[in-house]
Structures are given as structure tokens and as C-alpha cells.
Amino acid sequence: MPKTITTTPLTRRNAAVLSLAATAAVVASPAVAQSQPQLRWRMVTSYPKSLDTLDGGCRMLAKIVSDLTDGRFDIQVFAAGEVVPALAVLDAVQNGTVEMGHTASYYYVGKEPSLAFDTCLPFGLNARQQNAWMTHGGGAALMQELFAPYNIKVFPAGNTGAQMAGWFRKEIATVEDLRGLKFRTGGLVGQILTKLGVVPQQIAAGDIYPALERGTIDAAEWVGPHDDERLGLQKVARYYYAPGWAEGSAQVSLYVGQSRFDGLPPAYKSAVEQASAAVNTWMLGKYDNDNPAALRRLVASGAQIRLYSREVLTAAFDASEQLYAELSAKDPKFKKIFDAWNAYRREESLWFRVNELQFDSYMAFRLGRPG
Amino acid sequence: MPKTITTTPLTRRNAAVLSLAATAAVVASPAVAQSQPQLRWRMVTSYPKSLDTLDGGCRMLAKIVSDLTDGRFDIQVFAAGEVVPALAVLDAVQNGTVEMGHTASYYYVGKEPSLAFDTCLPFGLNARQQNAWMTHGGGAALMQELFAPYNIKVFPAGNTGAQMAGWFRKEIATVEDLRGLKFRTGGLVGQILTKLGVVPQQIAAGDIYPALERGTIDAAEWVGPHDDERLGLQKVARYYYAPGWAEGSAQVSLYVGQSRFDGLPPAYKSAVEQASAAVNTWMLGKYDNDNPAALRRLVASGAQIRLYSREVLTAAFDASEQLYAELSAKDPKFKKIFDAWNAYRREESLWFRVNELQFDSYMAFRLGRPG
């Protein structure tokens, strides 16, 4: 066992003990230095700097790693487009262009649909259930297996919580109202909405406002009140729908090149892993903290909150299940993860229905009214 | 800026670079050693070893700190009673008997009721809202101010999620059914239940089973399915009530003697803070992961799940508000924290009602049925 020094407030006696320890440690210094090299790595992200939750989380992650290593492990964060485009993060880490990336894995469902499990599937796990699946439910191992062919080590590193369903120029009362709707969204959501007659549109964030204003599109989803407020969509599409069934939570992830990660000293590996875990809570906390006030401001400036009818939710749920069955039939990798995830989703829903949901429902009944 | 070394897979070239770095670093070694002393600290907890979530979280926290410091900062975890009794953790850290403690601050409401805010108040914040309040909503600063007179630095370091309301020998349909009920519970909950005619009983965990079996008490609350299962209460009090309005979440906290913490090198301070944050997610994830299966087993062995009626919840909510008004009237410190917390609770309920709750409700409707 190493010699024990107990830190106490700065006293002469204590300073002397520390000083002795310093002298003694000179012998061991090469080993210490070897285990604590100066590193400067680059992290590319899929977010603009204006998103203080997503971009802010990446910078917080870098700061924590720096703090944990006395500044020896320095990670420089680059917003979308500064080194690689927003949706080239996976490629950049896989190819070794950079050591690290921070992104939402569902951006890459074009490579394979299973990547969505690392972010969310429509009608999927809420943020707590996703965290439970990743920390204790076998999700992390399945995701690591999925990312192995990309030579990427992957960590949960943030979550938005349940997103809003989006901004609509007209009210959506029935499934019929969805037919022919030009809706800005992407990935698996687009495939599900297509089954309901919606025409999905891929449009960059900055182009949503003019497209809605001109009527080129009829609806658009982004994130939730805090992030949406910056786009000003309530002025051109005032019906703001909930719940965001497509993203009951959305996890964002840290990617590290596998061989880069393997080459790190153990304490640096731990710093990366624990900083990701800490930022996971930090980011969800920031969304949950910032959304209520943003929602109040949006409503004050004209947004009209609407809840999807059960009919609309049920049609979307059924279309989701149909898509998952189709993907499972043709993609064994998807089927393997889906079967585990689906059983998990069912058991978590059962437990949340018995207790957590009863508590939240009563609190909403007593306190959750605007005023 | 420090010299940059990029780690790559082990190659001769890379090994040579690292070796050069090691040689160069010898000059700086006394500083390195001074900033990274060998420490062995003791953490006392309020939990028996059998609780693999609470006790397990403490051991995980110690492991993370060790991993982050290459084993230099070694924390030994002592279960309840091994060094000090379960409910003497605050005193032990305040008095400097040990450097660290892990406990639930509401155990100490006898010292002052405000300490409950660091765990939960009945009809309070759910786990995500508590995290949001602590990370971004001003809660952490208020808690630090509260703990300053105890010379304790306090960190959120775990959460149970919503607890169950407890085990009852008979069904509780109306408020009248609560009158005269001998109910094992404590703290502020006991004071609220007293207003409803309940007779609160303080009984150690190990004594609950025989007390229910003999009819010395009529009901008892503990935590939730995973922890409750070990007590076997379904055999002697089969009605298992939800929601646990008294603990919509329950945060547990890491205490560090303030002067001990102040004496730590910066990277060790960060290790303690980030390990606490990581364990916060780890523990809640473990509860959320383990509770569904435990609930199924409890039901299979005789537990009957019951939901409190709205009448009962409303009576308990009103009695809670009455207690908070009384405490605010006579305790300015309580009033200051309550006013901030109460406004936060209201805004969070509003936002969760609009979105998160709608999503969870639909998922429970579609998936959350036993079968």
C-alpha cells in the first residue's frame, strides 16, 4: 500500500509532509510522466456554436478532461464546419482525421439503421430509460459492438430529453391532416411519416424559417423550446405540437478513434469516460432547466401549444412498429439490437406506468398550469 | 502551450516519442508529485452492504476517483455501523472523524428542516428536475450555503428515482382509512402524515418485517421494488401503494470536510466532483434497470399493486403545503430555499406536463401493461 498523506488545511506541518513527499517522488518521476503525457486532441462536432446546450456540453466535456488531468490532456472543440461538415463527424473519427467527435449517431442511419439505437428510435426510451439501458441494461455493450467495424469507441455524452413534435402552419387533428404535408425532418422519422402520407424534407436549420414563411414546407421539427426559440418559427408556423413521439429522448455521443483510445494511459481513459458521464447529466439538466422559461416566452410571442390526438399518435406508433418489423426482417444486426431494446422498452414502460408516471401526473395536475 | 504528443497505436515511432517525453519530464517531477500526493481517505455511509444500489454507488464513486488518479487517491468505504452509526454521517464529517460521508441529508432534519432540500421534500422535484435544479437552477449554490456552517462541501451523488409509497396490511381507499394507521416512516413525511391522523413510527429496516407480522404497525415504506424485495414485506403487508408522493425522487449526497476538500490539489477536487456526477447517473440507472424485474417478482409472490386515489393524494398534498407554510413562517432559512425551490417546481411541472409527461403517458398506454 502506498504511504498515506492526509490533506488538511495549509499548515506548516502539512506543507512539510507534502514537501517530503515531493522529494521522495523524484525517483518515480519517469513512470509518472509516461503515464501522464501532454496531449492535444481535436474534437469535431455536429453543432453550431449558437447551440449552448449541445456545443456547450462539448466544451464542458473538454474542460472536465483538462481539469482531471491538470491541463495535460487538452481537447480542442471545433463546431460544425470548422474542420469537417456537421454530418461528417463519424467519417472523420473513423478515418483518423481527428481523434474525437461529438454527434448524434442517428444522423448516419444511411450507413445502417442500427446506428439510431445510439440516439433514439421513434416511440423509444425516455432519457432515464436510455441512461438505464446504457449504464446497466446491456445497451453500452451492444453499441460498442455496433461501432467496432468503424473503429470507434463510443460513450453516451448528453441528452436533450423529450423533444417537441415541431411547428405546423395548420392544426393537425386527424391522420388525414397529415397527408401531403411537407415536413422538415429526417432519418427513420421520415420513413415512418412517409407511411402516413407525409412528404419529408431535408433542410438545414438556417433555411427552415424562410421555407415555412414562403410555404415551401408546411411544418418543421428542430429540438425543443430552448433551441427552437432561436429559429423564431412561432412567427411563421404558430402551432407547436407535443409530444415529440419521434424523440422521446435523444442521446448524443462522444466518439473516440478506437486505436487512439487504446493508446491512452488508464487515467486518461477514465477521464474521457467519466467526463462523458458527467456531461450526460449536465446537458439534460441544462435542457430541463432552460426549456420552461423558453416555452413561456414562445407562448407570449404567439406560439399555440397543441397536443397530438390519440388517433394521430396511434397511427404513428403503428407505422413505427411496421418499419421496425421491415428492418428486422432484412437486417439481422438491427433485429438483434431491436429485440433486446424492445423487451427493455416494454419492461421500463411497465414500471414507469406504475410509479414515476403516477407521481408526475399528479404533480402536473396540481402545479402544471400556466398562470 | 504545452508540447503536443498525439497518441497512436503502439509503434516504435510512438514509443520513442513517449520515451523522450518521459526524459524531459524528470525536470518537472517535484511539481507533479506535489500535485498528486498519495492519499487514503475514509468514507462512511448510511447504508448496509446489502443495498447494492446505495452501497454499490459509494464503492463505484471510490473506484472512479482511484481510476482517475492512477490509484493515488484511495477512498475506503465503510458501511453503516462499521465506523459510525448510519445516521451519524453528518456529525462524523463535520467533526473531522472521517474525510468523507455518503448519506441522505433528510436524515438530519432534526438539526434543521432545510436539510431536506438536499434529498427531497414530499411532492417535490422528480429525479430529472432535481438534477436540473442542482446543475443549472441554483440548487447547488443554495445547498452549499446551507452546509457551510457544518464545514461540509456537498455534492449530489446518486438518486433513487420515485419511491413506492409503501406496504399496507389493508387497502387505503379514503383519507378516513389513514386515521390511526401506525406507519413506519420518518422526517417531514411523518409530520405531514400526522396532520392526516396517521401515527408515524420510527423502526430500523431489519425490524419492519416482524412489526408488520405481529401487527405492531399497519404499514411501512422503504424504497422501491429492488430494495424492498429483500425485506420480504409482501408476505405480511401485501398492498403495495404508488405513487410515493413523499419521495418523487430522493437524492443522496457526498459530504467532504470543507477544509479537507480545500486542501486537495485541483485535479483531485475535480475527480471528487466528477465521480459524484457520474455516480449520480449510475445509481439512478441501476434503480431504473433493476426495479421492473423486481416488481414482477414481487407481484408473482403475492404483492397487490394499488394506486392512491386522487382524494388521498390531494389531502396529503394540502397537508404538505400547510407544513411548508408553517416552517417558512418560523424559519427564514427554510423560507428562502423553499421560495426558490417552489417556483422551480412549478415551472418544471408546467414544462413536463406539456411534453415529457405526454410522451410517457402514451408509451404507458401502449406498452405499460403486465403480460
Under CATH at level 1, the class of the largest domain in chain A stands as Alpha Beta
- Rg of chain A is 23 Å
As a percent range, the share of strand residues of chain A is 5-15%
State the strand order across the main sheet of chain A: 7-6-8-5-9-11
Can you tell me the residue ranges of chain A where pLDDT is under 50 for at least 5 consecutive residues? 1-30
Describe the structure.
- Chains A, B: One of its GO terms (cellular component) is tripartite ATP-independent periplasmic transporter complex.
- Chains A, B: GO terms for molecular function: metal ion binding; organic acid binding.
- Chains A, B: Keywords: Metal-binding, Signal.
- Chains A, B: It comes from Phreatobacter stygius.
- Chains A, B: This is ABC transporter substrate-binding protein.
- The structure is a homodimer.
- Chain A is of the alpha/beta class.
- Chain A has two domains: about 35-160 and about 250-290, 3-Layer(aba) Sandwich (D-Maltodextrin-Binding Protein, domain 2); about 165-245 and about 300-345, 3-Layer(aba) Sandwich (D-Maltodextrin-Binding Protein, domain 2), CATH 3.40.190.
- Helices cover about 45% and strands about 15% of the residues of chain A.
- Chain A has 14 helices and eleven strands.
- The first copy, chain A, has helices at about 10-25, 30-35, 55-70, 90-95, 125-135, 140-145, 185-195, 210-215, 225-230, 260, 265-300, 310-330, 330-355, 355-365; strands spanning about 40-45, 75-80, 100-105, 150-160, 165-170, 180-185, 200, 220, 240, 250-255, 305.
- A six-stranded mixed sheet of chain A has the order 7-6-8-5-9-11.
- In chain A, strand 6 (about 180-185), helix 7 (about 185-195) and strand 7 (about 200) form a beta-alpha-beta unit.
- In chain A, helix 3 runs antiparallel to helix 11, helix 7 (about 185-195) packs across helix 12 (about 310-330) and helix 12 packs antiparallel against helix 13 (about 330-355).
- The longest helix of chain A is centred in the C-terminal third of the chain and has 35 residues, at about 265-300.
- Chain A is globular, with a radius of gyration of 23 Å.
- Residues about 1-30 of chain A have low confidence and may be disordered.
- At the A-B interface, helix 1, helix 2, strand 1, helix 3 and helix 5 of A face helix 1, helix 2, strand 1, helix 3 and helix 5 of B.
